[in-house]
Amino acid sequence: MSLTRTKYGIEYDTRREENDGSSAVGWIIVLVVIVAAISFIVHVAKRISSDEPSGEDALAAQQATLVVAPPPQSAPAAADPAAPAQPPPKPIVVDRMDARSREVKNLLLRLKTARDNDNVPMQVEAIESLRALPGDQAADFEDDLVRELGELNVRRLYALKNPQWVSDVTVKKGDTATGIASAHKTTLAAIKRLNPDVDLNRIRPGMKLAVMDSPALNLVVRKKLGAVDLNLNGKLFKRYQIEEGAPEIAWEPGIYESPANLRDYLARNGVELDADDAREMDELVPRGTKIHVSPY
Q1: What rounded mean pLDDT belongs to the chain?
Q2: Which residue range forms the structural domain that includes residue 116?
Q3: Looking at the 3D structure of the chain, how many domains does it have?
Q4: DSSP string covering the chain, please?
Q5: Which of 47-51, 169-173, 230-234 has the lowest mean pLDDT?
Q6: Chain segment 60-92, per-residue pLDDT in tens
Q7: Claim to verify: residue 224 and residue 263 sit in the same structural domain
Q8: CATH code, 267
């Protein structure tokens, strides 16, 4: 409370008290601001001192940064006109199987499956499909395919008696094995191999004989390739390789006819085969079969 002397005596001075209150409030605000500023400065100083590594901590932080950070990219050096040109990088070598077409891959997979399951007809179908592909997609393993095809076809003929080539013939009264072979355009040797348990000199009426029934056979002598192809019904049955070191084939390109003794006939004209191959061909090919001599 503020008192003052006036002409009326001592009185209460309201204006002075108002001035005293305003002054006090102002000082309080100034004090608060100063305290807040000091607190902020202290907090910042502590934060800086805690964030700054020193000694081993600083070295570890630097090393960690060097390990994590990627190596700096150096600017490409200017080309030296006197230096020899660098060859372009070699292309990545792709596996031979990966470079093949999808069709070839599928056929090779089919062939493998057929081999694993001993499915002879499926093997033959896959091989013939591979060989029939346009271009030279199977050229690098053509020889292997042909060799396998020949082995399979011989097995189909004699062991499996493929019904496309072999039929059962009922022996009639007066029939002979030689007469049956002639009538069905095959050989006596082929009938014997198809019927290993039968004595062909003692056949009798009513007996069943497995016989190649009118096979459409022909031979192709390939002079340049050094091989003889035996075709059956328009398809390659088996390829026989001519022996290395054999004399030059005497035949001129053209068409000839096989005599009864094919093996000797071939040998006389420079077509020398392995003994087993020559015997097998002589066994399959009847007299009068056409022989095509090709320069290729």
Answers
A1: 79
A2: 98-160
A3: 3
A4: --EEEETTEEEE-HHHHHHHHHHHHHHHHHHHHHHHHHHHHHHHHHHHHHHS--THHHHHHHHHHHHHSPPPPPPPPPP-TTSPPPPPPPPPPPPTTTTS-HHHHHHHHHHHHHHHTT-HHHHHHHHHHHHTSSTTTTGGGHHHHHHHHHHHHHHHHHTS--TTTEEEEE--TT--HHHHHHHTT--HHHHHHH-TT--GGG--TT-EEEEE-S--EEEEEETTTTEEEEEETTEEEEEEEBPTTPPPP-PPSEEEE--S-HHHHHHHTT--B-HHHHHHHHHHPPTT-EEEEE--
A5: 47-51
A6: 333 333 333 334 444 444 444 444 455 554 443
A7: yes
A8: 2.40.440.10
